[in-house]
């Protein structure tokens, strides 16, 4: 049975690769992004199976209109793919309050609100799949990327909890956690901290060099990633997390080892903070 996809950030990168792949296999897709022209090019030749909608995902009213148009044309949304997002770099102290909020609005709040908005119809059908694109930077923090880390860490926590909340209702929720892919992420779309503090000059120089040298040279192929995502959506079960890229796995494994060493140093003192005779916490990780 063909699926109805609602894809944000469909004009480039992961969103474009995913949009092209689902349309090529015969599914229908609502393609959204701030730029309309690239969406229309992707939709061309697919007739009524493709609906291109200009959408700023940070605009609550626009989100509502887009979802209404999508359900009006197709009747339902089977897969919500929250792909839209952007990077940022600079020392945390150098970002303005406006930049901090803008990053969180785009990378966290937009995806969280769209997820909430599609849940009623998915609950009514007891089916559906929500995909939230984070990053290995949603699990591992890097100096010079702290604001981006914060937005993706937030989406990680939201999505993992949501996965377990709605799984009994027949709804699937998955985090997509890529490493470095050739998506334009390291290009001009990244937001640079507006402040300039000399103490962070070396950090910023390193970040600028990284973005300049990595753009277009990443090892990850978005087309291959899109196919893995589709295969996962088609599968009988869905993981909480789908990590993509050899570099992502290596970074995660290194972070796990580092955290284990860090926690072990103070574990005994930390555990000794218990009140004698108190009941143990019954919460369990799933």
UniProtKB/TrEMBL annotation:
Keyword hit for Mitochondrion: no
Chain ranges of the Ketoreductase domain: 3-179
Keywords recorded for this protein, A-Z: Oxidoreductase
Keyword field contains Oxidoreductase: yes
Pfam families per UniProt: adh_short
Gene3D superfamilies linked to this entry: NAD(P)-binding Rossmann-like Domain
GO molecular function terms listed in the Swiss-Prot or TrEMBL record: oxidoreductase activity
UniProt record similarity statement: Belongs to the short-chain dehydrogenases/reductases (SDR) family.
Protein name: Short-subunit dehydrogenase
Lineage start: Bacteria, Pseudomonadati, Pseudomonadota, Alphaproteobacteria, Rhodobacterales
